[in-house]
Design goal:
Elements: E1 5-6, E2 15-20, H1 27-43, E3 48-53, H2 64-72, E4 79-82, H3 86-96, H4 100-117, H5 135-142, E5 148-150, E6 153-155, H6 171-176, E7 191-194, E8 203-204, E9 208-210, E10 222-227, E11 230-235
Parallel strand pairs: 2-3, 3-4, 6-7, 7-9
Antiparallel strand pairs: 1-11, 2-10, 5-6, 8-9, 10-11
Helix pairs in contact: 3-4
Length: about 240
């Protein structure tokens, strides 16, 4: 690897975190990025590696079902944390709440591609969709974490509400917020590593690192590699 730059926070010695941005059904890119991580670990072993996926595994891209299936396999010898994104939240709302509005909202935001990947026929009734998706996949989605803390970093899907203590953040903000989080220049109490808002490349600021680079829009799938007080990036 190369292009290591100073990071805005730190991790304790022996810990390396690979934080991966929004996948959106792009299974091939995720598999390729995991292969790059495995190669990096073989070349540069570390005592306690961790992979954090920051959410949005489903919708828009070609193989949401394949992405969930791949994540369920874990990563040999490496701890993995999977966070919930707003697209998983929309999907579960559509499946679990008897509200046609929730289903329509999901369909307008890429849900149709997800249903195709699970081979759900067009026109299937909303109240029967849960039976058409493997129960193991739904359990995985329902058990996703909302945040994860490591050293000086807080990993979330979207961001946090400025001025609100981390323990008091709302789940909706963690999954959905953009402003005023993105333009905030003050201290959050931790450097926030997030996806949700696609950019042309990773963003490194004093209070946040953005890693959604629009994989489903033609950009790369990005992984921030955090170790000690440095950060570098892998792409697929």
């Amino acid at each position: 690897m190369g292009n290591t730059i100073p990071a805005p926070a730190w991790l304790p010695p022996g810990r390396r975190v690979y934080a991966i941005g929004d996948v959106h059904g792009c299974l091939g890119r995720l598999v390729a990025l995991h292969a790059r991580i495995a190669a990096d670990l073989a070349e540069r072993p570390v005592e306690r590696p961790l992979i954090v996926h920051v959410g949005d595994y489903v919708d828009r891209g070609p193989d949401s079902a394949g992405v969930v299936r791949h994540l369920l396999q874990g990563f040999s010898g490496v701890e993995v944390v999977n966070l919930m994104g707003n697209h998983e939240h929309m999907m579960l709302d559509a499946l679990d709440v008897a509200d046609p509005g929730a289903f329509d909202h999901w369909m307008r935001n890429g849900g149709r591609a997800s249903l195709r990947s699970w081979e759900v026929p067009n026109g299937a009734a909303q109240d029967g969709l849960r039976e058409m998706i493997p129960a193991e996949h739904l359990r995985f989605l329902r058990r996703l974490a909302l945040h994860h803390r490591e050293g000086g970093y807080l990993f979330v899907h979207a961001g946090i509400r400025p001025g609100v203590p981390i323990e008091d953040q709302s789940s909706l903000d963690l999954m959905w917020i953009r402003e005023p989080f993105l333009s905030w220049t003050g201290d959050h109490g931790a450097v926030v590593v997030h996806g949700h808002t696609p950019m042309e490349g990773p963003v490194v600021k004093s209070n946040r690192i953005g890693i959604d680079t629009g994989a489903v829009l033609g950009g790369p799938l990005t992984c921030a590699v955090l170790e000690l007080d440095r950060v570098e990036f892998l792409f697929a």
